[in-house]
Amino acid sequence: MPHARKRKLHARIWLGVVFLLLTGAHYFLYRFSVDRLNNYPISQGLMAGSVLWTTVLLGAMWLRYAWSRYIMIATICVAMIGFSVVALLVRSESVNALPHLMRYVAGGLLFYAFALIPLSATSSLRHYLGPRTAGER
């Protein structure tokens, strides 16, 4: 297998891993957003927006748009900050610790953080999304 095809295959595998990590994050954060103890409806809007934009940006990365990786990293960071702020607000209003809600947020934020690792650190994904040469399709 030529080196370019191998790198392309590795990059697509990494995109699949990022998809799975984002799906896990979305599951946990959805559970946090719709819980009856979470009385901040902005978390549902934040959830819908993050699902929509991460899906669009994953599609753009699959189609090899180089800018999509940077916007995906920024989107994940903004979503992490947003969900952290909402979690702090929910926690500060409650008398008890709300451990199940905080587990959902912690799980979602961990999955988001793990999704940032291949997006920023893998060379195969960076080359896959880089400028194409004359011989590439």
How would you sum up this structure in a few lines?
The chain is mostly helical and 137 residues long.
What would your notes on this structure say?
α1 packs antiparallel against α2 and α2 runs antiparallel to α3. The protein is built from five helices and no strands. It is 79% helix and 0% strand. With 137 residues, it is an all-alpha fold. The protein starts with a helix and ends in a 9-residue tail after the last helix. The longest helix has 31 residues. 28% of the residues are buried.
Fold blueprint:
Layout: H1 3-33, H2 42-62, H3 67-93, H4 99-121, H5 123-128
Helix pairs in contact: 1-2, 1-4, 2-3, 3-4
User: In terms of per-residue confidence, which ranges show pLDDT below 50 for 5 or more consecutive residues?
Assistant: none
Shape: elongated
Strand residues, percent: under 5%
Q: How many strand units?
A: 0
| Separation of the first and last Cα atoms | 17 Å
Q: Would you list the SSEs in sequence order as H and E?
A: HHHHH
Largest sheet: none
Average pLDDT confidence is 90
Q: Count of DSSP helices? A: 5
Residues in helix, %: over 70%
